[in-house]
Specification:
alpha+beta, Multidrug efflux transporter AcrB transmembrane fold, Alpha-Beta Plaits, Gyrase A, domain 2, 3 domains, four-stranded antiparallel beta sheet, elongated
Length: 527
């Protein structure tokens, strides 16, 4: 009965595994993506050179490089390269991006502020008739620059909330068209449009600064299908946000709205119906996708760049692969040679059991290929030459797992156990060793990924991924398959080509099925 139970569990495990593999390839089919993204060294990519303006200290340039590195790394293991050149340039190279996407990722300043809405108007799609004067920006009073600090006490906040637009402000708002320039000064009103250029706004002075934001996460809330950015505030920001929402929740539209302004544009203008004192807010937009919401959240999380870059001196260019197709082909050939040697060794030494090795490696390859492909779409993983090296190393890790298990079965058979029993007890005694060996490999990959640079991170990520796949294959494929094969006549009967014959098992006679062992014992008793 125990053997039948093992058989049932083994069949169920194999069915579940194949269903998982089928699901992964189905997702690839739906996404119409069949190959992993390639890294900078294999595919090439885009390179941007940023030149800082004004007085730039070495400390600020290093800090700007660190912020850009964080922004780039947040998009996944993409094998990016970021370096400084001279005393005022930062060079960023990334694969799998277009020119505009690269510029947006590395150069956005992320000046965030919260302002009260006083007027809003839908933008007309009609243009000003020829011959009529175009709106001209009215001069604004000189005031503190946008970066000037403001106090957060209740008296200051009350003063800011009591501010009302002047006649000049209303006139400027009427004449303003999206695309016109308007000074962004924290202590003065701001007239601007949303990012889609669908609505324009007259906003009051800055009430809460973006520096009070401590958390920015892109997510889809429960019972919703739209992406948003959830914000968390510092203690000061929470108090300010509570004061603002308490005051404007009693007003009528549009003055019960506050504009969330990013780099001079309104990204969201939510209305407030009650005081919000928890320090939690969200940025919503009808145009948010997972990609754009995540990008904005990462920019907000990693803060403003400490230096300004001269856009006129910004250069973007295509870069060719540093290794190219020849090296990629060499890496693939090396992997195939290693795979072939493992299979050849298993055929010579384990004979019929080589089918288990071959099928297990094929399953591991299918899982690795599908996971790398899907991770490229999900987190930006890009396969580089170091990554290929990590996959090649994993072939040896997988081969070690087979050898440990097969040799333990032989040990159990030498102790007089039947083949079916040896397969089960051998597994119990070998799996701890397999898990321990893979855990060491996995820990090494985690340490390398955490402490190393981008190129080594690709190696570490791939090694860690394939090590996890090795564990899954050994537990969910190799072991169940061995249980089923042990019930067949070819393997269970100790055929000389099966790998379970006396010569290879190191026993004086072929290992018996449990049923044959019972028959032999019965016959011996009668004699």
């Amino acid at each position: 009965m125990a053997t039948s139970k093992h058989k049932t569990h083994s069949l169920r495990t194999l069915v579940i595994l194949f269903a998982m593999i089928a699901a992964l390839f189905s997702i690839m089919a739906v996404a119409n993506v069949w190959a992993p993204k390639l890294g900078l060294d294999l595919r090439g990519g885009m390179q941007i050179t940023l030149t800082a303006t004004g007085d730039v200290s070495a400390e600020n340039l290093a800090m700007a490089k660190k912020v850009i590195q964080q922004r780039v790394d947040s998009f996944g293991v993409g094998e990016s390269e970021i370096s400084t050149r001279g005393d005022r340039q930062i060079v960023v190279a990334m694969p799998n991006v277009n020119e505009q996407e690269l510029v947006d990722r590395v150069s956005q300043t992320a000046e965030l502020s919260f302002r009260k809405v006083y007027k809003t108007e839908a933008v007309s799609t009609t243009t000003t008739p020829p011959g009529l004067p175009q709106p001209v920006d009215s001069p604004r009073p000189t005031a503190a620059p946008s970066g000037a600090s403001t106090t957060a006490d209740s008296a200051t906040m009350a003063t800011l909330l009591e501010w009302t637009p002047s006649t000049q402000d209303t006139t400027d708002f009427t004449n303003y068209q999206c695309g016109d320039t308007f000074p962004d000064v924290s202590t003065e009103p701001l007239i601007t449009c949303d990012q889609d250029k669908q609505n324009k706004y007259l906003l009051g002075p800055v009430l809460i600064r973006g520096t009070e934001v401590t958390r920015a996460v892109a997510e889809i809330p429960q019972n919703s299908v739209s992406w948003q950015i959830s914000l968390g505030f510092s203690d000061t920001g929470r108090q300010q946000f509570g004061q603002v929402t308490t005051a404007i929740s009693q007003l009528t539209s549009p003055e019960n709205q506050f504009g969330i302004v990013l780099d001079g544009e309104v990204v969201s203008a939510p209305s407030v119906s009650e005081a919000i004192t928890t320090g939690q807010a969200s940025i919503t937009s009808s145009t948010f996708t997972q990609k754009t919401a995540t990008q904005l959240a990462n920019v907000l999380s990693f803060g403003k760049l400490p230096v300004k870059f001269d856009k006129s001196k910004m250069s973007v260019e295509n870069i060719s692969p540093t290794l190219g197709s020849d090296q990629l082909r060499a890496g693939i050939i090396a992997g195939l040679i290693g795979l072939g040697l493992v299979i050849a060794y298993s055929i010579l030494y384990y004979r019929g059991l080589s089918i288990v090795v071959t099928l297990s490696l094929a399953i591991a390859g299918a899982l690795a290929w599908s996971m790398m492909t899907l991770l490229g779409q999900a987190i930006g993983f890009a396969l580089s030459l170091p990554g290929i090296a990590g996959a090649i190393v994993a072939i040896g890790v997988t081969a070690d797992s087979f050898i440990i298990y097969f040799e333990r079965i032989r040990d159990e058979a030498r102790e007089g156990r039947s083949l079916r029993t040896a397969i089960e007890t051998g597994w119990v005694r070998s799996r701890k060793t397999i898990v321990a060996a893979d855990s060491v490999s996995l820990l090494s990959s985690v340490v390398l990924f955490t402490l190393s640079t981008a190129a080594v991170q690709g190696f570490a990520f791939t090694l860690g991924l394939t090590t996890l796949i090795d564990l899954a294959v050994v537990f969910w494929f190799t072991k169940p398959l061995m249980t089923l094969l042990g019930r067949t006549k070819f393997y269970g009967g100790g055929h000389r080509l099966s790998g379970f014959d006396p010569e290879h098992m190191g026993t004086s006679s072929a290992p018996l099925h449990n049923s044959r062992r019972r028959s032999a014992a019965t016959a011996g008793g009668k004699a």
